[in-house]
């Protein structure tokens, strides 16, 4: 297959070409003795521009291709991949996968997802919005964003602005006869700034990520936000060690939910490496809290009609009334656990954390600060001190000390610690200030208490 160039007009025909290639390779795998086979083929293209202090630093045009094949000889599995779609490379990939499978030990959980679970309806989720921006326009946009941020008094330097436009095509096909086509776009803008005073230098940033460029905030709004965040950190100081309420800003709160996902994902569970092992149907969060997977949201960051195995996705509760309603499983982990796939091979598709609190009222960010009262607002975490096995959580943090619902001063050089089990059970409120830039959609999250270790 010759080199392909993806454009707005050619996307459908390129998907058809990838699908034909996938189906042909599956037929050849079956002819080579495979009892089952599956193919994932992708084409990703993009433009990335970085500017700093009004000058171009980098311009990168990308065109990446991938082709992965998995074959099953009974319950012996072999996988191989290539970034070259030339017929000789595809044949070598097929030969490799078959050779691996013939020499692999049988695994009783190996095999395709159940044929009856394959997606059969393919609604348009409004994910395809190519951005018609050339290099010159991207440079001008990056400079405009940076100029907006640098215009603020007190901003002394810039780490640069970036403009990224990307689009991807993918096909998943298997020997059940399933062929799924997906196309989607992802675009991003970002800016990092530096401010300084007699107490030292501070750095912060802001970014926006969308499916359609028309949904971006304005260059000025992004520059202003990055500058405001950077300037707000000037004069940061430490705290004495204490226990207090902690409020995670929305962009940090989704990380907490990410730890929940890690603990209820099949790989952690069948390896018995999760602090939520055997917690299905048990209370793990407050009774007012609900978390739902919504795979079919238009323009959603994680929207998908089918998962990485072709299994149809559907709306489903993860946390219902504080109770862990289900795990997150692909077919392999489901078989290892004696359960059924939840359509989560490859991850979660749009997780929505419902705003609320024990008193039934949802609050915006200002309201969440009032709920916090006196405690720590966390806007940055550092380090990898989180154990999904034990639930122990200990990370470096920065943010702001809050008293009586008002920000008093910026904070740095502290560590926040607790156990995720207690953190989840101790959620006081989830804000309505939802961060839409991720497939995990949550507002700020207020925890009843953590240990803040400082001076």
From TrEMBL:
<keyword id="KW-0645">Protease</keyword>
<dbReference type="Pfam" id="PF01523">
    <property type="entry name" value="PmbA_TldD_1st"/>
</dbReference>
<protein>
    <submittedName>
        <fullName>Metalloprotease PmbA</fullName>
    </submittedName>
</protein>
<keyword id="KW-0378">Hydrolase</keyword>
<keyword id="KW-0482">Metalloprotease</keyword>
<dbReference type="GO" id="GO:0008237">
    <property type="term" value="F:metallopeptidase activity"/>
</dbReference>
<dbReference type="Pfam" id="PF19289">
    <property type="entry name" value="PmbA_TldD_3rd"/>
</dbReference>
<dbReference type="InterPro" id="IPR035068">
    <property type="entry name" value="TldD/PmbA_N"/>
</dbReference>
<dbReference type="Pfam" id="PF19290">
    <property type="entry name" value="PmbA_TldD_2nd"/>
</dbReference>
<feature type="domain" description="Metalloprotease TldD/E N-terminal">
    <location>
        <begin position="37"/>
        <end position="101"/>
    </location>
</feature>
<dbReference type="InterPro" id="IPR045569">
    <property type="entry name" value="Metalloprtase-TldD/E_C"/>
</dbReference>
<feature type="domain" description="Metalloprotease TldD/E central">
    <location>
        <begin position="129"/>
        <end position="234"/>
    </location>
</feature>
<dbReference type="InterPro" id="IPR036059">
    <property type="entry name" value="TldD/PmbA_sf"/>
</dbReference>
<dbReference type="GO" id="GO:0006508">
    <property type="term" value="P:proteolysis"/>
</dbReference>
<comment type="similarity">
    <text>Belongs to the peptidase U62 family.</text>
</comment>
<dbReference type="InterPro" id="IPR047657">
    <property type="entry name" value="PmbA"/>
</dbReference>
<dbReference type="InterPro" id="IPR002510">
    <property type="entry name" value="Metalloprtase-TldD/E_N"/>
</dbReference>
<dbReference type="GO" id="GO:0005829">
    <property type="term" value="C:cytosol"/>
</dbReference>
<dbReference type="InterPro" id="IPR045570">
    <property type="entry name" value="Metalloprtase-TldD/E_cen_dom"/>
</dbReference>
<feature type="domain" description="Metalloprotease TldD/E C-terminal">
    <location>
        <begin position="241"/>
        <end position="454"/>
    </location>
</feature>
């Amino acid at each position: 297959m010759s080199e392909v160039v993806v454009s707005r007009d050619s996307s459908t025909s390129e998907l058809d070409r990838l699908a034909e290639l996938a189906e042909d390779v599956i037929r050849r795998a079956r002819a080579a003795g495979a009892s089952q086979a599956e193919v994932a083929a992708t084409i990703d293209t993009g433009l990335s521009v970085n500017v700093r202090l009004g000058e171009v630093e980098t311009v990168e045009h990308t065109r990446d291709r991938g082709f992965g094949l998995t074959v099953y000889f009974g319950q012996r599995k072999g996988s191989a991949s290539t970034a070259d779609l030339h017929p000789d490379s595809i044949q070598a990939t097929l030969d490799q996968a078959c050779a691996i499978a013939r020499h692999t030990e049988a695994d009783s959980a190996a095999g395709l997802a159940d044929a009856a679970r394959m997606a059969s309806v393919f609604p348009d989720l409004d994910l395809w919005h190519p951005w018609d921006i050339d290099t010159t326009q991207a440079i001008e946009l990056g400079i405009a964003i940076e100029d907006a941020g640098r215009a603020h008094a007190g901003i002394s330097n810039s780490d640069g602005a970036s403009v990224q436009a990307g689009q991807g095509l993918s096909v998943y096909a298997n020997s059940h006869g399933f062929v799924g086509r997906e196309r989607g776009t992802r675009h991003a803008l970002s800016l990092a700034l530096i401010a300084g005073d007699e107490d030292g230098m501070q750095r912060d940033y802001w970014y926006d990520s969308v499916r359609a460029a028309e949904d971006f905030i304005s260059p000025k709004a992004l520059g202003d936000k990055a500058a405001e965040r950077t300037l707000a950190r000037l004069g940061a100081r430490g705290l004495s060690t204490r226990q207090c309420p902690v409020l995670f800003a929305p962009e940090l709160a989704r990380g907490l939910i990410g730890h929940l996902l890690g603990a209820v994902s099949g790989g952690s569970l069948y390896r018995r490496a999760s602090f939520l092992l055997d917690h299905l149907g048990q209370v793990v969060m407050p009774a007012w809290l609900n978390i739902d997977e919504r795979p079919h949201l238009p323009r959603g960051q994680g929207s998908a009609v089918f998962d990485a195995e072709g299994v149809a996705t559907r709306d489903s509760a993860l946390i219902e009334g504080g109770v862990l309603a289900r795990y997150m499983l692909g077919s392999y982990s489901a078989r290892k656990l004696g359960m059924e796939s939840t359509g989560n091979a490859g991850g979660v598709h749009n997780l929505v954390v419902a705003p609320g609190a024990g008193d039934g009222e949802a609050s915006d960010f200002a309201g969440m600060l009032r709920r916090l009262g006196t405690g720590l607002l966390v806007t940055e975490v550092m380090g990898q001190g989180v154990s999904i096995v034990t639930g122990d959580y200990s990370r470096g943090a920065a943010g702001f000390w809050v008293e009586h619902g008002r920000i008093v001063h910026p904070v740095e050089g502290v560590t926040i610690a607790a156990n995720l089990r207690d953190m989840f059970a101790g959620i006081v409120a989830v804000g309505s200030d939802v961060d839409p830039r991720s497939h995990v959609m949550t507002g700020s999250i207020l925890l009843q208490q953590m240990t803040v270790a400082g001076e």
